[in-house]
Design a protein that fits this description.
454 residues, alpha+beta, Alpha-Beta Plaits, Trigger factor, domain 2, five-stranded antiparallel sheet, 13 helices, elongated
Length: 454
Amino acid sequence: MQVQQKDISSVATEFLVTFSAKEITEKIEKWLVRKSAHVHKDGFRPGKVPLSVVRTHYFAEAESDTLHDVIQSFVTDTAEEKNFNLATNPEYEITSYKRGEDFSFRVTFSFEPELDLKKFETLPFEKLICPLTLDATKEKIESICNTFPKDVLKDKKIEKGDFIKASLTLIDEGKEPSVLVESARIDIDPSDNSFLKDFIEDFVSQQAGATLEKDVLLPQDFPIKKLRGKKKTLRITVLGVYHTEPHGLDEEVLEKWGGISAEDFKEFLFRLQTCQRENDLLTCNKRALLDLLAAAYDMEVPEVLVQRDFQQVLQYLIPELKRAREIDDEEVRGKTDEQVLEEYRALSHRRVRLAFLIEKIAKEYDIKLTTKQKEDRINEYLGQFPEKARRKIFEENKGDAVFWQSVFAPVLEDLVIQKILTFPNVKEKEVSEEEFQAILKDVLPEPREDEANA
């Protein structure tokens, strides 16, 4: 056996290994001899089948198993002998082999990077705090009440933004007027482009009881099929003028929340907001802290892990990039596809760096998930798949420690971040509500659906 080693980087080394044809032949023959002791064939006693017959029937299997065993033995022996701290399973490829010739293969070992944890323990970091105020709760109550508007009858003239209840009557020359709708809601919206546009403009400043007649072209989706697309005279009579206004915290609103009292509702809302504020603060502090750690630990990591992460990203990135080009999204405007892909590849490198750091910190400070946290995370993860697929995914990966490590990683990351935020080098920085909302908007660019509408 000949072995050549070449360091690829500080976290990866490569071995080019060659076994002579003679060595491979001897190993294959040993495999066949072992096999012959267990071969049963008509006309021969058990274990007495000639080796030539065994070779004829089992040579391909012997060859395949031997080559695989040679590689696996080299990988295992080398990792143990050199005491490698592996970051992932070694990768190998067969570089040269023909039956009767030398067998060559390449093995790449990737190591965990060396990390100085003392470095992050002294990094200056300001933890945002923003106590929840009573004004914030008051604004939330107003926001919730605004989602339950009530219609109020008014005795004043019709204004833009009002709506009317009106009857619609068809006027046909020589026929009795025909009531089409006894009471319909019509919004007084000047931007309305429906067949009622002319009516809406003329109703402004009118009062209840007002009647207008106009010739209109009825649309193709008019409810009465025989009138679709025809020009007819309509008479609209205003039955009432209304405007909408938000509820106060009255019985009607409280009924929608289970009929609780106003005080219980305020207490519930304050607890809900407090929980949300804690989560939002953790999100903002987590983003800032991860940015700080990523900048401080810009070390080499195994290229195979970066590439693996990037390939997963590419599955959805390529279609998204195509869509962004079609709508001229500003995030890709002025950039080539190669530049965009390189940006995402840099993010993959960052994720791998941070994953190593988080895992190292967790080991150093004995941070582990509880059984309940693991169960909750498994349920959360499997819940995103169809029911039939959940059991299959669980069973297929039940014994795969690497798979479950990746599933638990987001929870472990949160636990580590929470631990770091208790370190002495972390100082508090109080910000106003306005400042915090601006920071949160930058961290969460997509608007979050209000709890009241969830």
